[in-house]
Amino acid sequence: MKTRSAITAGMVALAVFAAPSPAQAAEPDPVLNKAVFNNPLGTKAEQNTIYKQVARLIDRVPQGAELRMSMYHFETPDTADTEDDPDIVDRLVAAHERGVAVKVVLDQASKNFTAAGRLRARLGTDDTQASFVVSCDDVHGGTRGCIATRSHTWSDGTTSTAYNHNKFMAISKLVLDNGTEYSGVVYQASANMTLWDANEGWNNALTFVDTKVYNAYVKYHRDLVSYRRTTAGNNNYYTDTGSGTDYRAFFFPRHEASGEAFTGSATDTIYNTLNSVKCSYKDEANVTRQTDVRVMQLAFNRTPIAAKLVELRKAGCWIDVVASQIGGDVEKTLKNGGVQTTRCWWKVNEEFTYRVHHKYMLIDGGYDDDITPRTYTGSHNYAWSALRLADEAMVRVMGRATHDDYLRNFWSVRDTCRANGGIIV
After folding, report:
1. Could you please report the per-residue DSSP string of 29-75?
2. Threshold 0.85, pTM exceeds
3. What is the rounded distance in angstroms from the CA atom of residue 317 to the CA atom of residue 327?
């Protein structure tokens, strides 16, 4: 049975298409309206959970449909292309050759990677064609994102520059093994396409069906392609899809307000989200309960968010933070404010380091005028560069099922980090 989200997204009827490719026929369908999580400490199959989801999505895009991808660090391994260790380049090329329009936008670093070169050799670089591979700097050069182009110099003299940090696909149609067709599919991940993201970092990937949000991703992808042709880009691009369905998407970069410092909070999407949290609420049985807010991030240096979490802690919320790279001011703020914080980063050797690569936040309790659990996930770290200097996308999901899937992952990763030397601040 289709979920409510699938129904509201306008799923169409059953259809019969050409026989699937050998890889598709041998592998299960991808999951829809649900997240998958890798386990870098697990088997090869568990490490590659997200790669497997991507491969199964690609394989089920039919002839005449469109697959748009934007990816930071596209260096997917060249493998034997098995079920547990798929070759994403081979799958994308196969889709192109069966008549799928495969449109790929990469960050500037990726253009020099082997995987990007393999894909570019088969799809070409002409963005007027049905399939292509382009990078954000291939027109004007320089260090930049496609839309984000600014840089910022910090008080210590270091400079942060713009980049395309996206990790998404927007797919016009999928056909599952039983012939069911889905239109308007979005894949949004925290994971890049690298070996490290599978076997050293904890990541998630959410795939869902929602026509409104899919259309917004298509527009964003088109804008990534078109703004890269300009020298200025659009450093105040920020848009969101608004309410109306279980899914809401946010697209960056977002400029600080007029007259505000680069590190101001007035236009910080996460900070403003936390402004709507109420720490006490009544559940369906009219029992008063506390709201839980949980954060799991690779990079966290936006001090106003930390200060807001402390404020909520003092107001009675339960706050739990796990991060790998915690800025000094953020760590001090959380520690002094009594917020439970776990630093997740441990070295096996000089070549191998485990860390959290997630970028999600969970809110379970009072929020504005409802108590529906919320999950925020995507490519967006709680770092200043993610807000001001990067091409990024983030999704908010309403509903208990998604929240609880992420909650189970939160507990598992947090406890694993603690058991392996993760520091509780």
Report:
1. PPP-SEEEE--TTS-HHHHTHHHHHHHHHHHTPPTT-EEEEEESSB-
2. yes
3. 23
CA-wise closest residue to 188 among 224, 216, 160, 228: 216
Phi, psi of 326 (to 5 degrees): -110, 120
Rounded alpha-carbon distances, angstroms, from residue 18 to 99, 123, 173, 178, 374:
12, 23, 14, 12, 39
pLDDT tens across 152-170, in order?
999 999 999 999 999 999 9
List strand residue ranges (DSSP E) for 246-286, in order: 247-252, 277-278, 280-282
Amino acid at 164: N
**64-81 tens-digit pLDDT:** 999 999 999 999 999 999
- 3-class DSSP string for 354-414: EEECCEEEEEECEECCECCCEEEEECCCECHHHHHCEEEEEEEEECHHHHHHHHHHHHHHH
Q: Give the pair of three-digit tokens for residue 8.
A: 């509201």
Among 307, 277, 301, 324, CA closest to 388:
301
2: burial class by Cβ within 10 Å (0-12, 13-18, 19+)? middle
Contact assessment for residue 363 and residue 399, using Cβ atoms and an 8 Å cutoff? no
Average pLDDT in the chain: 94
- CB proximity list for 388: less than 8 A, separation 6 or greater: 148, 150, 152, 235, 253, 254, 255, 256, 262
How far is it, in rounded angstroms, from Cα 69 to Cα 220?
11
Written as six digits, the tokens of 125 are 């670089």
Strands (E), 210-317: 239-240, 247-252, 277-278, 280-282, 288-290, 292-300
Element of type H or E holding 22: helix 22-26
Backbone phi and psi for residue 96, each to the nearest 5 degrees, phi listed first: -55, -45
Q: Are 410 and 296 in contact (CB under 8 A)?
A: yes
Q: Is the per-residue pLDDT at 327 higher than 90? A: yes
For 255, counting Cβ atoms within 10 Å of its Cβ (0-12 exposed, 13-18 middle, 19+ buried), the class is middle
Q: What angle do CA 405, 410, 412 make, to 5 degrees?
A: 100
In angstroms, the CA 302 to CA 211 distance is 33
The tokens describing 303, both together, are: 């001090």
CA atoms within 13 A of residue 165's CA, in its CB half-sphere: 26
